[in-house]
Design brief:
mainly alpha; 2 domains; 19 helices
Length: 491
Protein backbone atom coordinates (compact mmCIF):
# COMPACT_ATOMS: atom_id res chain seq x y z
CA UNK A 1 0.00 0.00 0.00
CA UNK A 2 1.40 3.39 -0.98
CA UNK A 3 0.81 6.58 0.96
CA UNK A 4 1.47 10.06 -0.41
CA UNK A 5 2.47 13.38 1.09
CA UNK A 6 1.53 16.39 -1.04
CA UNK A 7 4.12 18.82 -2.34
CA UNK A 8 2.83 21.72 -0.25
CA UNK A 9 5.27 24.17 -1.85
CA UNK A 10 3.52 23.78 -5.20
CA UNK A 11 6.88 23.65 -7.03
CA UNK A 12 7.57 21.26 -9.88
CA UNK A 13 10.84 19.43 -9.31
CA UNK A 14 12.91 19.18 -12.52
CA UNK A 15 14.49 15.85 -11.60
CA UNK A 16 13.74 13.09 -9.13
CA UNK A 17 16.62 12.40 -6.76
CA UNK A 18 16.89 10.89 -3.33
CA UNK A 19 18.28 14.14 -1.92
CA UNK A 20 16.12 17.02 -3.19
CA UNK A 21 17.31 20.57 -2.56
CA UNK A 22 15.43 22.51 0.12
CA UNK A 23 12.73 24.88 -1.17
CA UNK A 24 13.41 28.57 -1.17
CA UNK A 25 11.52 30.96 1.08
CA UNK A 26 9.78 32.43 -1.95
CA UNK A 27 8.48 29.00 -2.88
CA UNK A 28 7.26 28.12 0.60
CA UNK A 29 5.43 31.43 0.87
CA UNK A 30 2.90 30.27 -1.73
CA UNK A 31 1.51 26.95 -0.47
CA UNK A 32 -0.71 24.91 -2.76
CA UNK A 33 -2.07 21.44 -2.18
CA UNK A 34 -2.44 20.79 -5.96
CA UNK A 35 -5.02 18.13 -5.12
CA UNK A 36 -6.73 18.13 -8.51
CA UNK A 37 -3.46 17.99 -10.47
CA UNK A 38 -2.11 15.09 -8.41
CA UNK A 39 -5.43 13.30 -8.51
CA UNK A 40 -5.44 13.67 -12.30
CA UNK A 41 -2.00 12.07 -12.57
CA UNK A 42 -2.73 9.08 -10.33
CA UNK A 43 -6.21 8.69 -11.78
CA UNK A 44 -4.85 8.57 -15.33
CA UNK A 45 -2.37 5.83 -14.48
CA UNK A 46 -4.92 3.94 -12.43
CA UNK A 47 -7.56 4.27 -15.16
CA UNK A 48 -5.20 2.97 -17.83
CA UNK A 49 -4.06 0.06 -15.70
CA UNK A 50 -7.57 -0.82 -14.52
CA UNK A 51 -9.00 -0.48 -18.04
CA UNK A 52 -6.39 -2.85 -19.44
CA UNK A 53 -6.91 -5.26 -16.54
CA UNK A 54 -10.67 -5.12 -17.06
CA UNK A 55 -10.33 -5.92 -20.76
CA UNK A 56 -7.98 -8.79 -19.96
CA UNK A 57 -10.19 -10.27 -17.23
CA UNK A 58 -13.41 -9.89 -19.24
CA UNK A 59 -11.77 -11.60 -22.21
CA UNK A 60 -10.56 -14.34 -19.88
CA UNK A 61 -13.99 -14.70 -18.25
CA UNK A 62 -15.70 -15.05 -21.62
CA UNK A 63 -13.08 -17.57 -22.76
CA UNK A 64 -13.12 -19.83 -19.68
CA UNK A 65 -15.06 -19.29 -16.46
CA UNK A 66 -12.94 -21.86 -14.61
CA UNK A 67 -9.64 -20.22 -15.59
CA UNK A 68 -11.06 -16.81 -14.73
CA UNK A 69 -12.02 -18.09 -11.29
CA UNK A 70 -8.52 -19.51 -10.78
CA UNK A 71 -6.90 -16.22 -11.77
CA UNK A 72 -9.15 -14.19 -9.47
CA UNK A 73 -8.35 -16.43 -6.53
CA UNK A 74 -4.63 -16.14 -7.35
CA UNK A 75 -4.90 -12.34 -7.47
CA UNK A 76 -6.66 -12.43 -4.11
CA UNK A 77 -3.86 -14.47 -2.57
CA UNK A 78 -1.32 -12.16 -4.19
CA UNK A 79 -2.86 -9.11 -2.53
CA UNK A 80 -2.42 -10.76 0.87
CA UNK A 81 1.20 -11.61 0.03
CA UNK A 82 1.79 -8.00 -1.05
CA UNK A 83 0.69 -6.63 2.30
CA UNK A 84 2.78 -9.21 4.14
CA UNK A 85 5.83 -8.22 2.09
CA UNK A 86 5.25 -4.49 2.58
CA UNK A 87 4.67 -5.01 6.32
CA UNK A 88 3.22 -1.53 6.65
CA UNK A 89 6.59 0.11 5.94
CA UNK A 90 5.37 2.58 3.32
CA UNK A 91 3.50 4.71 5.83
CA UNK A 92 6.46 5.33 8.20
CA UNK A 93 8.77 5.59 5.18
CA UNK A 94 6.76 8.58 3.94
CA UNK A 95 7.43 10.39 7.19
CA UNK A 96 11.11 9.40 7.33
CA UNK A 97 11.86 10.51 3.76
CA UNK A 98 9.79 13.67 4.10
CA UNK A 99 11.41 14.78 7.36
CA UNK A 100 15.00 13.80 6.55
CA UNK A 101 15.62 13.97 2.78
CA UNK A 102 19.38 13.82 3.27
CA UNK A 103 19.01 10.30 4.70
CA UNK A 104 16.56 9.11 2.07
CA UNK A 105 19.07 6.72 0.49
CA UNK A 106 19.63 4.90 3.77
CA UNK A 107 15.91 4.68 4.47
CA UNK A 108 15.22 3.22 1.02
CA UNK A 109 17.99 0.64 1.35
CA UNK A 110 16.79 -0.44 4.80
CA UNK A 111 13.20 -0.73 3.59
CA UNK A 112 14.19 -2.81 0.55
CA UNK A 113 16.29 -5.22 2.62
CA UNK A 114 13.48 -5.61 5.13
CA UNK A 115 10.87 -6.10 2.40
CA UNK A 116 13.04 -8.64 0.61
CA UNK A 117 13.04 -10.74 3.79
CA UNK A 118 9.30 -10.46 4.35
CA UNK A 119 8.71 -11.19 0.66
CA UNK A 120 10.60 -14.48 0.91
CA UNK A 121 8.61 -15.38 4.03
CA UNK A 122 5.35 -14.52 2.25
CA UNK A 123 6.20 -16.69 -0.75
CA UNK A 124 7.18 -19.58 1.50
CA UNK A 125 3.89 -19.20 3.36
CA UNK A 126 2.01 -19.22 0.05
CA UNK A 127 3.64 -22.50 -0.86
CA UNK A 128 2.57 -24.04 2.45
CA UNK A 129 -0.98 -22.67 2.02
CA UNK A 130 -1.58 -24.15 -1.44
CA UNK A 131 -0.13 -27.47 -0.27
CA UNK A 132 -2.47 -27.44 2.74
CA UNK A 133 -5.46 -26.67 0.49
CA UNK A 134 -4.58 -29.61 -1.75
CA UNK A 135 -4.94 -27.74 -5.03
CA UNK A 136 -4.25 -29.62 -8.26
CA UNK A 137 -0.81 -29.07 -9.78
CA UNK A 138 -1.98 -26.73 -12.61
CA UNK A 139 -3.90 -24.53 -10.17
CA UNK A 140 -0.97 -24.52 -7.74
CA UNK A 141 1.43 -23.26 -10.39
CA UNK A 142 -0.94 -20.54 -11.58
CA UNK A 143 -1.61 -19.36 -8.02
CA UNK A 144 2.08 -19.18 -7.13
CA UNK A 145 3.13 -17.38 -10.33
CA UNK A 146 0.41 -14.73 -10.14
CA UNK A 147 0.77 -14.42 -6.37
CA UNK A 148 4.52 -13.83 -6.72
CA UNK A 149 3.91 -11.23 -9.42
CA UNK A 150 1.57 -9.25 -7.18
CA UNK A 151 3.82 -9.60 -4.11
CA UNK A 152 6.90 -8.31 -5.96
CA UNK A 153 5.28 -4.90 -6.16
CA UNK A 154 6.28 -4.43 -2.52
CA UNK A 155 9.78 -3.62 -3.79
CA UNK A 156 8.43 -1.11 -6.30
CA UNK A 157 6.35 0.83 -3.78
CA UNK A 158 9.48 1.71 -1.81
CA UNK A 159 10.79 3.71 -4.76
CA UNK A 160 7.36 5.15 -5.53
CA UNK A 161 7.15 6.59 -2.01
CA UNK A 162 10.00 8.94 -2.93
CA UNK A 163 8.14 10.13 -6.02
CA UNK A 164 5.05 10.81 -3.97
CA UNK A 165 6.89 12.62 -1.18
CA UNK A 166 8.42 14.90 -3.80
CA UNK A 167 5.04 15.48 -5.48
CA UNK A 168 6.04 13.67 -8.68
CA UNK A 169 2.84 11.77 -9.26
CA UNK A 170 3.27 12.59 -12.95
CA UNK A 171 6.38 10.42 -13.28
CA UNK A 172 4.86 7.71 -11.11
CA UNK A 173 1.83 7.59 -13.40
CA UNK A 174 4.05 7.23 -16.49
CA UNK A 175 5.93 4.31 -14.97
CA UNK A 176 2.74 2.54 -13.86
CA UNK A 177 1.07 3.16 -17.21
CA UNK A 178 4.01 1.81 -19.21
CA UNK A 179 4.25 -1.25 -16.98
CA UNK A 180 0.53 -1.92 -17.41
CA UNK A 181 0.88 -1.77 -21.17
CA UNK A 182 3.71 -4.30 -21.09
CA UNK A 183 2.08 -6.72 -18.66
CA UNK A 184 -1.48 -6.58 -19.94
CA UNK A 185 -0.30 -6.50 -23.53
CA UNK A 186 1.53 -9.75 -22.94
CA UNK A 187 -1.48 -11.27 -21.17
CA UNK A 188 -3.93 -10.30 -23.90
CA UNK A 189 -1.59 -11.54 -26.60
CA UNK A 190 -1.04 -14.87 -24.87
CA UNK A 191 -4.77 -15.26 -24.31
CA UNK A 192 -5.58 -14.46 -27.92
CA UNK A 193 -3.06 -17.05 -29.08
CA UNK A 194 -4.71 -19.71 -26.93
CA UNK A 195 -1.76 -20.14 -24.57
CA UNK A 196 -1.96 -22.33 -21.49
CA UNK A 197 -3.11 -20.69 -18.22
CA UNK A 198 0.39 -20.92 -16.73
CA UNK A 199 1.88 -19.10 -19.72
CA UNK A 200 -0.74 -16.35 -19.45
CA UNK A 201 -0.14 -16.07 -15.69
CA UNK A 202 3.29 -14.49 -16.25
CA UNK A 203 1.60 -11.21 -17.20
CA UNK A 204 1.67 -10.03 -13.62
CA UNK A 205 5.37 -10.70 -13.11
CA UNK A 206 6.15 -8.80 -16.32
CA UNK A 207 4.09 -5.80 -15.17
CA UNK A 208 5.59 -5.73 -11.69
CA UNK A 209 9.19 -6.12 -12.84
CA UNK A 210 8.65 -3.20 -15.21
CA UNK A 211 7.50 -1.04 -12.28
CA UNK A 212 10.45 -2.07 -10.11
CA UNK A 213 13.09 -1.55 -12.78
CA UNK A 214 11.54 1.64 -14.11
CA UNK A 215 11.21 3.18 -10.66
CA UNK A 216 14.80 2.37 -9.73
CA UNK A 217 16.11 3.64 -13.08
CA UNK A 218 14.42 7.04 -12.97
CA UNK A 219 15.42 7.56 -9.36
CA UNK A 220 19.05 7.36 -10.54
CA UNK A 221 20.21 5.37 -7.55
CA UNK A 222 23.98 5.51 -6.98
CA UNK A 223 26.34 2.64 -7.69
CA UNK A 224 27.19 -0.11 -5.20
CA UNK A 225 30.09 1.86 -3.74
CA UNK A 226 27.71 4.50 -2.40
CA UNK A 227 25.44 2.02 -0.69
CA UNK A 228 25.75 1.43 3.02
CA UNK A 229 25.06 -1.87 4.67
CA UNK A 230 21.92 -1.63 6.82
CA UNK A 231 22.43 -2.61 10.43
CA UNK A 232 20.26 -5.08 12.27
CA UNK A 233 19.33 -2.36 14.74
CA UNK A 234 18.07 -0.05 11.98
CA UNK A 235 16.13 -2.88 10.40
CA UNK A 236 14.58 -3.69 13.78
CA UNK A 237 13.64 -0.06 14.34
CA UNK A 238 12.05 0.10 10.89
CA UNK A 239 10.15 -3.12 11.52
CA UNK A 240 8.74 -1.75 14.78
CA UNK A 241 7.55 1.37 12.96
CA UNK A 242 5.62 -0.72 10.47
CA UNK A 243 4.38 -3.40 12.88
CA UNK A 244 0.98 -1.93 13.67
CA UNK A 245 0.29 -0.75 10.13
CA UNK A 246 1.57 -3.99 8.65
CA UNK A 247 -0.64 -6.08 10.92
CA UNK A 248 -3.57 -3.81 10.10
CA UNK A 249 -3.08 -4.13 6.35
CA UNK A 250 -2.57 -7.89 6.49
CA UNK A 251 -5.66 -8.36 8.65
CA UNK A 252 -7.80 -6.23 6.33
CA UNK A 253 -6.46 -8.04 3.27
CA UNK A 254 -7.30 -11.44 4.75
CA UNK A 255 -10.88 -10.54 5.65
CA UNK A 256 -11.35 -9.04 2.18
CA UNK A 257 -10.15 -12.20 0.42
CA UNK A 258 -10.84 -15.12 2.77
CA UNK A 259 -14.26 -15.77 1.26
CA UNK A 260 -12.58 -16.60 -2.08
CA UNK A 261 -10.72 -19.54 -0.54
CA UNK A 262 -13.86 -20.82 1.18
CA UNK A 263 -15.76 -20.39 -2.08
CA UNK A 264 -13.09 -22.25 -4.05
CA UNK A 265 -13.47 -25.18 -1.65
CA UNK A 266 -17.27 -25.33 -1.62
CA UNK A 267 -18.24 -23.72 -4.94
CA UNK A 268 -15.26 -24.50 -7.16
CA UNK A 269 -13.61 -22.25 -9.73
CA UNK A 270 -16.97 -21.51 -11.37
CA UNK A 271 -18.31 -20.18 -8.07
CA UNK A 272 -15.26 -17.92 -7.66
CA UNK A 273 -15.84 -16.71 -11.22
CA UNK A 274 -19.48 -15.79 -10.54
CA UNK A 275 -18.64 -13.90 -7.36
CA UNK A 276 -15.63 -12.16 -8.92
CA UNK A 277 -17.67 -10.93 -11.88
CA UNK A 278 -19.81 -8.70 -9.68
CA UNK A 279 -17.13 -7.96 -7.08
CA UNK A 280 -14.88 -6.49 -9.79
CA UNK A 281 -17.56 -3.88 -10.51
CA UNK A 282 -18.51 -3.09 -6.92
CA UNK A 283 -15.04 -3.13 -5.39
CA UNK A 284 -13.58 -1.29 -8.36
CA UNK A 285 -15.55 1.83 -7.45
CA UNK A 286 -14.65 1.51 -3.77
CA UNK A 287 -10.94 1.12 -4.47
CA UNK A 288 -10.92 3.96 -6.97
CA UNK A 289 -12.16 6.47 -4.40
CA UNK A 290 -10.42 4.97 -1.36
CA UNK A 291 -7.01 4.61 -2.99
CA UNK A 292 -6.80 7.66 -5.19
CA UNK A 293 -8.67 10.35 -3.29
CA UNK A 294 -8.62 9.30 0.36
CA UNK A 295 -5.26 7.54 0.69
CA UNK A 296 -3.06 9.32 -1.83
CA UNK A 297 -4.47 12.83 -1.62
CA UNK A 298 -6.50 13.61 1.51
CA UNK A 299 -4.86 11.42 4.15
CA UNK A 300 -1.58 13.40 4.10
CA UNK A 301 -3.59 16.59 4.65
CA UNK A 302 -5.31 15.00 7.65
CA UNK A 303 -1.90 14.17 9.12
CA UNK A 304 -0.55 17.66 8.54
CA UNK A 305 -3.56 19.60 9.85
CA UNK A 306 -4.30 17.40 12.87
CA UNK A 307 -1.34 18.87 14.73
CA UNK A 308 -1.74 22.45 13.54
CA UNK A 309 -5.39 23.15 12.69
CA UNK A 310 -7.96 20.60 13.79
CA UNK A 311 -10.82 22.78 12.64
CA UNK A 312 -9.43 22.36 9.14
CA UNK A 313 -9.57 18.56 9.57
CA UNK A 314 -13.21 18.73 10.64
CA UNK A 315 -14.12 21.01 7.73
CA UNK A 316 -12.26 18.81 5.25
CA UNK A 317 -13.86 15.59 6.50
CA UNK A 318 -17.35 17.07 6.45
CA UNK A 319 -16.97 18.39 2.93
CA UNK A 320 -15.46 15.08 1.80
CA UNK A 321 -18.24 13.13 3.52
CA UNK A 322 -21.07 14.86 1.68
CA UNK A 323 -19.40 14.23 -1.68
CA UNK A 324 -18.73 10.60 -0.74
CA UNK A 325 -22.34 10.14 0.33
CA UNK A 326 -23.65 11.54 -2.96
CA UNK A 327 -21.29 9.40 -5.04
CA UNK A 328 -21.98 6.28 -2.97
CA UNK A 329 -25.76 6.60 -3.22
CA UNK A 330 -25.64 7.24 -6.94
CA UNK A 331 -23.27 4.34 -7.61
CA UNK A 332 -25.26 1.96 -5.42
CA UNK A 333 -28.47 2.86 -7.23
CA UNK A 334 -27.05 2.40 -10.73
CA UNK A 335 -25.21 -0.85 -9.97
CA UNK A 336 -28.26 -2.21 -8.15
CA UNK A 337 -31.00 -1.50 -10.68
CA UNK A 338 -28.79 -2.23 -13.69
CA UNK A 339 -27.14 -5.35 -12.26
CA UNK A 340 -28.73 -7.77 -14.73
CA UNK A 341 -27.87 -5.77 -17.83
CA UNK A 342 -24.38 -4.78 -16.69
CA UNK A 343 -23.30 -8.30 -15.79
CA UNK A 344 -24.67 -9.97 -18.92
CA UNK A 345 -23.39 -7.18 -21.17
CA UNK A 346 -19.87 -7.38 -19.80
CA UNK A 347 -19.45 -11.06 -19.01
CA UNK A 348 -22.20 -12.84 -20.92
CA UNK A 349 -25.38 -14.65 -19.96
CA UNK A 350 -23.55 -17.47 -18.18
CA UNK A 351 -22.79 -14.98 -15.37
CA UNK A 352 -26.42 -14.05 -14.72
CA UNK A 353 -26.29 -15.50 -11.15
CA UNK A 354 -23.72 -12.79 -10.35
CA UNK A 355 -26.37 -10.12 -10.98
CA UNK A 356 -28.38 -11.33 -8.00
CA UNK A 357 -25.34 -10.99 -5.74
CA UNK A 358 -24.68 -7.47 -6.94
CA UNK A 359 -28.01 -6.15 -5.66
CA UNK A 360 -26.85 -6.44 -2.07
CA UNK A 361 -23.08 -6.26 -2.57
CA UNK A 362 -23.59 -2.61 -3.56
CA UNK A 363 -23.99 -1.81 0.15
CA UNK A 364 -20.24 -2.36 0.53
CA UNK A 365 -19.62 0.81 -1.52
CA UNK A 366 -21.11 2.96 1.22
CA UNK A 367 -19.31 0.99 3.93
CA UNK A 368 -15.95 1.20 2.13
CA UNK A 369 -16.19 4.95 1.43
CA UNK A 370 -16.96 5.98 4.97
CA UNK A 371 -14.85 3.37 6.72
CA UNK A 372 -11.77 4.50 4.81
CA UNK A 373 -12.50 8.16 5.48
CA UNK A 374 -12.89 7.45 9.19
CA UNK A 375 -9.87 5.12 9.26
CA UNK A 376 -7.50 7.70 7.77
CA UNK A 377 -8.76 10.30 10.23
CA UNK A 378 -8.11 7.83 13.07
CA UNK A 379 -4.56 7.26 11.85
CA UNK A 380 -3.95 11.01 11.73
CA UNK A 381 -5.24 11.10 15.33
CA UNK A 382 -2.66 8.42 16.22
CA UNK A 383 -5.34 5.88 17.10
CA UNK A 384 -3.72 3.07 15.10
CA UNK A 385 -3.95 0.48 17.87
CA UNK A 386 -7.67 1.05 18.31
CA UNK A 387 -8.14 0.82 14.54
CA UNK A 388 -6.19 -2.44 14.51
CA UNK A 389 -8.56 -3.87 17.12
CA UNK A 390 -11.48 -2.99 14.84
CA UNK A 391 -9.79 -4.83 11.97
CA UNK A 392 -9.24 -7.89 14.12
CA UNK A 393 -12.93 -7.80 15.03
CA UNK A 394 -13.72 -7.65 11.31
CA UNK A 395 -11.54 -10.68 10.65
CA UNK A 396 -13.36 -12.64 13.37
CA UNK A 397 -16.74 -11.67 11.90
CA UNK A 398 -15.61 -12.61 8.41
CA UNK A 399 -14.22 -16.04 9.28
CA UNK A 400 -17.29 -16.84 11.36
CA UNK A 401 -19.72 -15.89 8.57
CA UNK A 402 -17.64 -17.70 5.94
CA UNK A 403 -17.56 -20.86 8.07
CA UNK A 404 -21.29 -20.78 8.76
CA UNK A 405 -22.78 -19.68 5.43
CA UNK A 406 -20.48 -20.62 2.56
CA UNK A 407 -20.63 -24.42 3.06
CA UNK A 408 -24.45 -24.25 2.87
CA UNK A 409 -24.92 -21.46 0.30
CA UNK A 410 -21.53 -20.85 -1.37
CA UNK A 411 -22.32 -17.86 -3.60
CA UNK A 412 -24.75 -16.05 -1.34
CA UNK A 413 -22.64 -16.83 1.72
CA UNK A 414 -19.57 -15.27 0.10
CA UNK A 415 -21.49 -12.09 -0.63
CA UNK A 416 -23.03 -11.86 2.83
CA UNK A 417 -19.60 -12.39 4.39
CA UNK A 418 -18.40 -9.21 2.72
CA UNK A 419 -21.51 -7.18 3.48
CA UNK A 420 -21.53 -8.09 7.18
CA UNK A 421 -17.77 -7.74 7.60
CA UNK A 422 -17.47 -4.36 5.92
CA UNK A 423 -20.63 -3.14 7.62
CA UNK A 424 -19.37 -4.15 11.05
CA UNK A 425 -15.93 -2.56 10.65
CA UNK A 426 -17.44 0.59 9.13
CA UNK A 427 -19.85 0.93 12.06
CA UNK A 428 -16.97 0.82 14.54
CA UNK A 429 -14.76 3.36 12.79
CA UNK A 430 -17.55 5.74 11.79
CA UNK A 431 -19.05 5.83 15.29
CA UNK A 432 -15.66 6.55 16.87
CA UNK A 433 -14.84 9.46 14.56
CA UNK A 434 -18.40 10.74 14.77
CA UNK A 435 -18.14 10.92 18.56
CA UNK A 436 -14.81 12.74 18.36
CA UNK A 437 -15.38 15.12 15.44
CA UNK A 438 -19.08 14.98 14.51
CA UNK A 439 -17.99 14.73 10.89
CA UNK A 440 -21.47 13.61 9.78
CA UNK A 441 -23.80 16.30 11.14
CA UNK A 442 -27.37 16.36 9.91
CA UNK A 443 -26.66 19.60 8.04
CA UNK A 444 -24.18 17.61 5.92
CA UNK A 445 -26.01 14.34 5.33
CA UNK A 446 -29.61 15.52 5.60
CA UNK A 447 -29.83 17.40 2.28
CA UNK A 448 -28.14 14.53 0.41
CA UNK A 449 -30.49 11.92 1.87
CA UNK A 450 -33.53 14.10 1.23
CA UNK A 451 -32.58 14.71 -2.40
CA UNK A 452 -31.79 11.04 -2.99
CA UNK A 453 -35.05 10.01 -1.32
CA UNK A 454 -36.92 12.33 -3.64
CA UNK A 455 -35.16 10.76 -6.60
CA UNK A 456 -36.18 7.29 -5.47
CA UNK A 457 -39.76 8.51 -5.21
CA UNK A 458 -39.60 9.75 -8.79
CA UNK A 459 -38.21 6.38 -9.87
CA UNK A 460 -40.99 4.38 -8.23
CA UNK A 461 -43.75 6.63 -9.54
CA UNK A 462 -42.46 7.10 -13.06
CA UNK A 463 -41.18 3.64 -14.00
CA UNK A 464 -44.61 2.16 -14.84
CA UNK A 465 -45.29 5.18 -17.05
CA UNK A 466 -42.04 6.17 -18.78
CA UNK A 467 -40.04 2.94 -18.69
CA UNK A 468 -36.85 1.78 -17.05
CA UNK A 469 -34.21 4.06 -18.55
CA UNK A 470 -36.13 7.33 -18.18
CA UNK A 471 -37.16 6.45 -14.63
CA UNK A 472 -33.53 5.83 -13.69
CA UNK A 473 -32.50 9.16 -15.18
CA UNK A 474 -35.23 10.91 -13.20
CA UNK A 475 -34.02 9.22 -10.02
CA UNK A 476 -30.47 10.50 -10.49
CA UNK A 477 -31.41 13.99 -11.69
CA UNK A 478 -31.93 15.58 -8.22
CA UNK A 479 -28.63 14.16 -6.95
CA UNK A 480 -26.75 15.41 -9.99
CA UNK A 481 -28.36 18.84 -9.65
CA UNK A 482 -27.22 19.03 -6.02
CA UNK A 483 -23.68 18.06 -6.95
CA UNK A 484 -23.66 20.66 -9.70
CA UNK A 485 -24.76 23.33 -7.22
CA UNK A 486 -21.94 22.35 -4.87
CA UNK A 487 -19.45 22.54 -7.68
CA UNK A 488 -20.63 25.93 -8.92
CA UNK A 489 -20.78 27.54 -5.48
CA UNK A 490 -17.80 25.65 -3.97
CA UNK A 491 -19.59 25.33 -0.64
Amino acid sequence: MVYAIPNLTGRRLPRVTLEPPPPSSAETSRPSHRILAKLAYVFTARWLRDALMAVFLIYLARTSAATYGDFMMALGLGSILLFVAEFGLNLPLVGLVGRSPAKSRDFVIQAQVFKAGTLLCALAGAGVFVWWQGYAAPLTRVVLVIGAGVALEALATTFLVVYQVQGRQDLESKIRGTAALLGMGYGLGALALGAAPLTIAWFKIIETLAIVLGSAWFLALPGPAAWTRPSLKKLGDLGRLGLIFGTMEITASIYNKANLFFLQKYGGSDGVAQYSATWQLVDGISVLVSSLLLKNILYPLFVQFWETDRDAVIALTRNTARWLLAVALGAMFVLGVEADRLITLIYGTRYLPAAGLQKYLVATIFFAFFHNLAAYVMISMKREKLLLSYYVAGLVINLAVCSLLIPAIPLEGSAWAMVLTKGGVAALTILYVQRRLNFLPWTTVGPVLAVFGGGLGLYVLSRPVVGREVAEALALAPLLALAWRWWRTRV
